[in-house]
Design brief:
The active site is at residue 412. Keywords: Calcium, Magnesium, Metal-binding, Thiamine pyrophosphate, Transferase. Catalyzes the transfer of a two-carbon ketol group from a ketose donor to an aldose acceptor, via a covalent intermediate with the cofactor thiamine pyrophosphate. The protein is α/β, with parallel strands linked by helices. It has 3 domains: 3-305, Rossmann fold, CATH 3.40.50; 337-524, 3-Layer(aba) Sandwich (Rossmann fold); 533-659, Rossmann fold, CATH 3.40.50. It is built from 24 helices and 20 strands. Strands 10-9-11-12-14-13 form a 6-stranded parallel sheet, with helices on both faces. Strands 1-2-3-7-6 form a 5-stranded parallel sheet, with helices on both faces. Strand 17, helix 19 (558-571) and strand 18 (576-580) form a beta-alpha-beta unit. Helix 2 crosses helix 9 (223-235), helix 7 crosses helix 15 (412-425) and helix 19 packs across helix 24 (650-659). The radius of gyration is 27 Å and the shape is elongated.
Length: 661
Amino acid sequence: MNQIDTLSVNAIRILSADAIQKANSGHPGLPLGCAAAAYELWAHHMNHNPANPKWENRDRFILSGGHGSMLLYSLLHLFGYGNLSKEDLMNFRQLDSKTPGHPEYGHTVGVEATTGPLGAGMGMAVGMAMAEAHLESVFNKENYPVVDHYTYVLGGDGCMMEGISSEAFSLAGTLGLSKLIVLYDSNRISIEGSTDIAFRENVQERMQAFGFQTITVEDGNDIDAIGKAIEAAKADTEHPSFITIKTQIGFGCPAKQGKASAHGEPLGVENVEALRKNLNWPSEEPFFVPEEVYKNYSEIAEQKAEVEAAWNVMFAAYCEEYPEMEALWNQYHNAKAGEALKDDAGFWAKQEKPEASRAISGRLINYIKDVLPNLFGGSADLAPSNKTNMKDAGDFSKEDRAGRNLHFGVRELAMAAIGNGIMLHGGLRAYVSTFFVFSDYCKPMARLSALMGVPLTYVFTHDSIGVGEDGPTHEPIEQMAALRAMPNFHVFRPCDATETEAAWYSAVTSEHTPTALVLTRQNLEPMAGSSREALKGGYIIDDCEGTPELILIASGSEVALAVHAKETLAAEGQKVRVVSMPCMDLFEEQSEEYKESVLPREVRRRVAVEALGSFGWDKYTGLDGKIIAMESFGASAPAGLLFKKFGFTVEHVVEVAKSLK
């Protein structure tokens, strides 16, 4: 390693240590240990342009060990990304800073994914590599490799312990995602001490079993060896690659190097001083970086810009020779492309016969795929039940990158992370699917979808005790409340075809909010009053003359129940309004005037009906209303018997309504 490389590597270490010390909070171990590997990758192998962080053909880098965020922030500052200033580093972990404790997508320029939950970045990296492989098959022509880039992900022992990594890497190996390169920070230290206390497996042999090429670098400070490993990874066009880089956590700090205490606490003022001396750093001033280091990073950044400039020339020639591909490219990269469905009569066709919303959704997916050729998705081994298969669209595989149907296997957690990665990559509109009860497996990654503002679509079927004979293990109860509790997450439970159409339209036109479609196994009767008003989340589906005396509120299959109960009550002279509430989240986004027009405060006699947990409905029923919902787990029996057993009948709704004073 020459002098300027040594200084450039150590600049990452010093900036990281200073920022963490100033904040008196953070994780210095990873930045100190991985600085050399990160520098070698970013400076000499990765194609990226700090002047244009969103260049479509850039290599992607995900820091799966998000606790080591100062490594990434130091790189972004030194390379000149988004004017991330020295002052921003000084404000690490402070309120409203550009440098939060863990990297946040959309908040800091150059951050490709929000990471922090260990292993999540590994799953998202797999999704990005899948997106690259598919787009390459769609757009590349002879002499025009317009999609040709790598996905790099850096993580440590914690990422490898989390089950999501095994799920994701098993699929990556099966698919032969050769442009996925994993850098494994192997320092054999976790928060509680040596990894020997809980993690003694042979990680390389596990990765080989998954189908990865495995490479080992014995010295994490040997940038030449690291560079050769990266080039060897690129040379393998059949397998994803896993590079084990043996590092020392907290490298350079004499009192902390190789110790668990280096992981998640500031080094301490005296230890930062010792770090400077040990690294022969030329100044004791905090956050000082020599001008020759900034010059080195700037010159590298200029070289990176030239790579994009060459790509731009190639892309312009490509567009000239293939104008139809330019139009397709623009369609793929248009976030508003789904709005083409707004006035599409075929999409909004009225359904005349009872049908399960999962089947309606399946039909809509096959309609949407012809309007949005970049629709890309699938299920966790449940496509025949979820109805998520796109007909005549092929299956994405190692042998066929052009296929649009994804087969995730029984890997719900990784599936959701991969879906996030596909969306983060850009150019594709992704959906993922499983049974609603298994949304529990997806939730940590659904939370990241919401936090990142990534509009991934979740198709959750078998939505209630209507699952029937499979029994309580497969009958969701509390899952709806859990998803509704999440900020920036739309949960739709449609009552018929029209509301299912609205749900899908909302999902594919959303730019910053993920959507869950919660769909039935059992048939739903078409509702005469259902309409596109469902796009407001809640609306009057069946009304009375004048001001109502009673309001029945329901979602999904229980809307029909409420309408029929209203018929009985109206025959007895009661003035009843039925409100369909397919999406509480969207309803809450409406104006106060609109919400008051649907649920006037003066009408205090209210009954909510939903064959799921009651949590959350009280904000609509108030102190004087009642909720008909599940207060226990379900049971194993035909769906009709279960609805009767748990009180989801017209007679019971009428009885509860009459009990209100």
